[in-house]
User: Fold this.
Amino acid sequence: MSHFRALFRLVVCMEEITPLPLRRPEAVPSDADFEQAWNDHRRHLLDVAYRLLGSVSDAEDAVQEAYGRLLQARRAEIEDVRAWLTTVVTRLCLDQLRSARVQREAYIGPWFPEPLIEGADPLADPAERITLDDSVRMAMLIVLEELSPAERVVFVLHEIFQFPFEHIARMVDRTPAACRQLASRARRHVNTAHSPRSRVDVDEQRRVTERFIEAVETGELRPLLDVLDPMVAGWADVGGAVERVREPQVGRDAVAARLLRLFGPAGEVRLSPVMVNGEPGVIALRDQAVLSVIVLTTAGGLVTKINAIADPRKLRHLAPLAART
Assistant:
């Protein structure tokens, strides 16, 4: 819990050098008050920010910024610290989504979220980890990327976190009626683009994932074809700069050939099963570095879709896991 103490000391020291105008003494929370707010609300804020941004590092930055602003706020005027922090995080995320939307219009190929790998940081306090549920499954987060910033914020806050529209309206500076319209449009799109399976068979996913790993590691085409659906689709986020990944590969022959080229001869890349955003997936390591994280969609014992995150910037937080594997 050294992060909040360091942040607290930094702001207090800065104020000793340059006092804030019109600050009342009670505006600065005590160390104990700040620690209580950190312990009580940080995980909730990370849950909100990750679902809004799809980035572990950006979510952590938004939460850190919110707590920094809490240190500068007039605490006597804050009736509900959790609601206040959630509002700050939401507005920070909304601003970032608007800025990122312009950048992603020029992004080549798909933009996939940063993957959450269970056990990636063994030193992290379990209470600080992002909650894993259906709303952070990779397929859902990819669909959320297709929404406008306002639609995504309203959908996440209302559908996932059950915030009333009246509260959301104050967070995003819109009317409750406008928020209802945004939520309705977002819900229609999500329901059309993302048809959640009524019952996810995790055991089958795990079995197919293990077969996929065994097939790829042979370095041969035939075993890999046997585990792929005839119309399997494969797509990779490699950082938005490679023209050849503008469209997905479709069909098991094309997908299998691309996989074998990506992973090279047998033994060059080591694949391991991991839990990715709460469901079975694969991590690919080369020379103790993470080459990619792969999420498989399965049906009828075969792989029907492959989404690979290979952008090094989205894999940096997995370095501790690679060093131990």
